Amino acid sequence: MPFVSIGGVTLHHRYRPGTGNACPIIFMNSLGTDFRIWDEIVSLLGDEMPTLVYDKRGHGLSDIGGVSSIDDHVDDLCGLVDHFGLAKVVLCGLSVGGLIAQGFYARRPESVEALILSDTAHKIGTADSWNTRIATVESKGIQEIADAVLKLWFTPAFHAERSTDLDGCWNMLTRQPLAGYIGTCAAVRDADFTEAARRIAVPTLCIVGDQDGSTPPDLVRSLADLIPGARFEVIRNAGHIPCVEQPGPFTGLIRDFVASLPSGKQIHG
After folding, report:
1. 10-residue block means of pLDDT along the chain (269 residues)?
2. Which of 46, 80, 88, 247 suits 155 as a labelling partner, its CA being 20 to 30 A distant?
3. Any idea what the Cα angle at residue 210 is, between residues 245 and 239, rounded to 5°?
4. How many Cβ atoms sit within 10 Å of the Cβ of residue 194?
5. If you write DSSP's letter for every residue of 107-136 in order, what string do you get?
6. Distance CA 82, CA 75 (A)
7. Cβ-proximal residues to 175 (8 Å cutoff; 6+ apart), any chain
8. From its phi and psi, is residue 155 left (phi > 0), alpha (psi between -120 and 50) or beta?
């Protein structure tokens, strides 16, 4: 079974070995989702590079684990890297996953070959906005905010043309453990990597959907501007979760970026 205990927290994961010289790439999902949002990306990559996806604590089939800070999530990621004996990794984090990636780099820069930061920032939202969300979810449940959240996740075209997928994403969001969702909201609220971003010294790719309502392009560009030498790319016709809405272009950016790294090989799609 694809479960492992990290510091007493059971994490649900899927590791897929790859071929060639490319570093393993670890995908970290967003708030209110599980690792299935990466399914199409992992499928398109095939065996081009090793991949690891996992449900962060408080989400999916992983333990809730008393999450209250980004450091809790970073602890889990450190444990996974050590469990699989990965000397160097590429981290690909979406939204809060991007904060986890930044936190891991700040703690263990020697373990990171490169960063892919998707639809994220050095600081996301304000204390007031997160406290309002937490209060609403505590009193009325995740379903109270689900429709509004999905409007940020996906474009109007997705809502109009992919109603079945939208229903599935609504189910995924509303079925997340309440304590895990609230704890991760608090973790995002309190995270600020503004100064840490200036010290990132590995190749970094910042990606954003052109219609992202949660972390708009200008915010993601501001993160790229903080990171020396970072590359900034906008995916057309995508909201906050471009790996679901536009998996082809998203995978293409990954291939191109990984191929440019010291450990990478020329990967042809």
Report:
1. 93 91 93 98 95 97 93 97 96 98 98 98 98 98 98 98 98 97 98 98 98 98 98 98 98 96 61
2. 46
3. 35
4. 12
5. H-GGGEEEEEEES--SS-S-HHHHHHHHHH
6. 11
7. none
8. beta
